[in-house]
Amino acid sequence: MPRVDVSYTLSTTTTHPFDVAVARVREELADEGFGVLCEVDVQATLKNKLGVDREPYLILGACNPQLAHGALNAESELGVLLPCNVVVYRQDGETHISAVNAEQMLSLVGNDELSETAAEVRRRLASVVEKAAAA
């Protein structure tokens, strides 16, 4: 699968239809110890609020409780950057899967105690993106 090179995301495209990609992302998140705390159906929200039609776009707010607990102990204000967002969307006939690059995001905090956690979250989310996109 082609990877999209954006520093703040871990992204790829998949041949899976949108609904299949969403289901696979949920499964892979669970396998990596993440729960989905919230979800935003951007397509429905924009249609309801603005009358705008767009292709499916779903944001899943994912959290690994153990990793979040450790990170919050190291940096109390970190909650403003949680949960870790994973998106599945359709654009130009392709299904895309993207997750936040936790190392890039947490580098903003400037707390060296978070580097191990950030690397672990990045590794796990990269695995989610890769495995969910696989045929």
Shape: globular
**Averaging pLDDT over every residue, what do you get?**
94
N-to-C CA distance:
9 Å
Helix content estimate: 40-55%
Widest beta sheet: strand line-up: 1-2-6-5-4-3
How many individual helices? Answer: 5
What Rg, in angstroms, do the CA atoms define?
Answer: 15 Å
Largest sheet: 6 strands, antiparallel
Structural class: alpha+beta
Q: Hey, roughly how much beta strand do the residues contain?
A: 25-35%
SSE topology string: EEHEHEHEEHH
Strand count: 6
The stretches of 5 or more residues where confidence is low (pLDDT under 50) are none
Topology, please?
Layout: E1 3-4, E2 9-14, H1 18-31, E3 35-41, H2 42-50, E4 57-63, H3 65-74, E5 84-91, E6 94-100, H4 102-107, H5 115-133
Antiparallel strand pairs: 1-2, 2-6, 3-4, 4-5, 5-6
Helix pairs in contact: 1-5
Question: How would you explain this protein's 3D organization?
Answer:
By secondary structure, the chain is of the alpha+beta class. Helix content is 43%, strand content 27%. The chain has 5 helices and 6 strands, in the order E-E-H-E-H-E-H-E-E-H-H. The protein has helices spanning 18-31, 42-50, 65-74, 102-107, 115-133; strands at residues 3-4, 9-14, 35-41, 57-63, 84-91, 94-100. It has a 6-stranded antiparallel beta sheet with strand order 1-2-6-5-4-3. The longest helix has 19 residues, at 115-133.
Short description:
With 135 residues, the chain is an alpha+beta fold. The protein contains five helices and six strands, in the order ββαβαβαββαα.
Task: Record keyword descriptors for this entry.
single chain, 135 residues, alpha+beta, 5 helices
